[in-house]
Amino acid sequence: MSTRDAPAQIGDLPPIGRPANSAFLEAGITTLVQVATHSRRELLAMHGVGPRAIRILATALAERGLDFAD
């Protein structure tokens, strides 16, 4: 999937950018609960997911009482 084709936001994920959304869609990740099953390192290894996306996700996870798997 091209980043142009990726939606601006998916599921209950916060806006993290189209490249990260594209990577998450390819991996089948569409919810924060699914994000919480992965470590920061696993997510950062995905093409398009960078430190900014991880910071945004960490905040969203914390607001729901969740955390990364690491």
Walk me through this protein's architecture.
- The chain has 70 residues and is mainly alpha-helical.
- 46% of the residues lie in helices and 0% in strands.
- The chain has 4 helices and no strands.
- It has helices spanning 18-27, 32-35, 40-44, 51-63.
- 21% of the residues are buried.
- The model has no long low-confidence stretch (mean pLDDT 91).
N-to-C order of helices and strands:
HHHH
Q: Major sheet: size, sense and barrel closure?
A: none
What's the overall average pLDDT, rounded? Answer: 91
What is the CATH topology assignment? DNA polymerase, domain 1
Radius of gyration: 11 Å
CATH architecture: Orthogonal Bundle
How many DSSP E strands?
A: 0
Into which percentage range does the β-strand content fall? under 5%
Helix percent band = 40-55%
- Name the structural class: mainly alpha
Question: Count the helices. How many?
Answer: 4
- Anisotropy-based shape: globular
Low-confidence stretches: none
Any idea of the CATH class?
Mainly Alpha
| Termini Cα gap | 28 Å
How many domains in all?
Answer: 1
